[in-house]
């Protein structure tokens, strides 16, 4: 294992907070790959991919504020893409790099799109994992049904069973992979019960903003000009096949890849899924 943990201090309208991130590979490698997780997930989702890619890149996997090992915000209204983008810009300044490649799963992809659409963006190659500029209200309602519920369990095994249930769209994973995805996203409380590491208040702005309509970000996508790959779980309800195909025809005219037997979202736990990312990022 070649994983090292650091923190960087960031600023929100309600004050300072610390964002945790993991670094893999040579610290002085000028080639940097930033991997950003989904709404309720965390940086450790990318352990397998980072280990496979750290011979080529300095791989950086942050815990978005309110998740994983990062601090929680004083004002939950700031749990939104503009704050996340600002934190990532602070992170890149800490890394002292001018350009990066970016892999974003779901929310991490939205953060990547927002940053890649900016004039002078540091993103040179972009991988969007099961997310695009049109997100259906049906998928948003499904996510809203469990985000912020804040369940707890008497044992880690009970937590694993719960994660298997709500994350079934991740596709066929081994027992060891389900255990890893669970143990890195839960913690034992002082009373002995287990609960998710993320702040349940991340759900407040999510539900208020997106509960009753599609998210339409086509103008932002059209502003992206860097080489882009869009990966879709073949059974995804968040990135429809129609949207995915259109993403290959406009804006950056993305390269398209689809993972069979998976919904929202591919988790890069297998060599075949990792190869899709590696081949795109390392291609000429």
Task: Describe what this molecule looks like in 3D.
The protein is α/β, with parallel strands linked by helices and 284 residues long. The chain is built from 10 helices and 13 strands. It has helices at residues 47-53, 81-95, 107-116, 137-144, 156-166, 175-183, 203-210, 218-222, 241-247, 271-281, and strands spanning 3-12, 15-24, 32-36, 58-62, 100-105, 123-129, 134-135, 152-153, 186-188, 194-196, 215-216, 228-233, 255-259. An 8-stranded mixed beta sheet has the order 1-2-4-3-5-6-12-13, sandwiched between helices. Helix 9 (241-247) links the parallel strand 12 and strand 13. Helix 5 (156-166) crosses helix 6 (175-183). It is globular and about 50 Å long.
Element layout with pairings:
Elements lengths: L2 E10 L2 E10 L7 E5 L10 H7 L4 E5 L18 H15 L4 E6 L1 H10 L6 E7 L4 E2 L1 H8 L7 E2 L2 H11 L8 H9 L2 E3 L5 E3 L6 H8 L4 E2 L1 H5 L5 E6 L7 H7 L7 E5 L11 H11 L3
Parallel strand pairs: 3-4, 3-5, 5-6, 6-12, 12-13
Antiparallel strand pairs: 1-2, 2-4, 7-11, 8-10, 9-10
């Amino acid at each position: 294992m070649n994983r090292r943990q650091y923190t960087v201090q960031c600023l929100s309208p309600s004050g300072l907070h610390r964002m945790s991130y993991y670094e893999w590979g040579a610290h002085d490698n000028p080639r940097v790959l930033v991997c950003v997780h989904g709404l309720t997930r965390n940086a450790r989702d990318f352990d397998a991919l980072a280990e496979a890619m750290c011979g080529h890149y300095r791989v950086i996997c942050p815990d978005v504020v309110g998740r994983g090992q990062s601090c929680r915000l004083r004002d939950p209204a700031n749990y939104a893409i503009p704050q996340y983008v600002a934190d990532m810009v602070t992170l890149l300044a800490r890394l002292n790099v001018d350009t990066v490649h970016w892999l974003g799963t779901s929310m991490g992809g939205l953060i990547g799109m927002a940053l890649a659409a900016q004039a002078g963006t540091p993103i040179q190659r972009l991988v969007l994992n099961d997310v695009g500029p049109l997100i259906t209200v049906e998928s948003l309602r499904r996510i809203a049904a469990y985000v912020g519920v804040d369940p707890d369990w008497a044992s880690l095994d009970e937590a694993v069973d719960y994660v298997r249930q709500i994350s079934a769209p991740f596709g066929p994973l081994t027992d060891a992979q389900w255990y890893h995805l669970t143990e890195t996203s839960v913690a034992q409380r002082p009373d002995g019960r287990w609960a998710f590491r993320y702040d349940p208040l991340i759900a407040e702005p999510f539900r208020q903003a997106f509960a009753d309509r599609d998210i339409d970000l086509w103008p932002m996508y059209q502003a992206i000009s860097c080489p882009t790959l869009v990966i879709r779980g073949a059974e995804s309800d968040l990135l429809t096949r129609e949207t995915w195909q259109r993403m290959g025809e406009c804006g950056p005219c993305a390269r398209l890849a689809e993972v069979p037997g998976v919904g929202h979202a591919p988790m890069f736990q297998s060599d075949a899924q990792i190869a899709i990312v590696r081949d795109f990022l390392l291609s000429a």
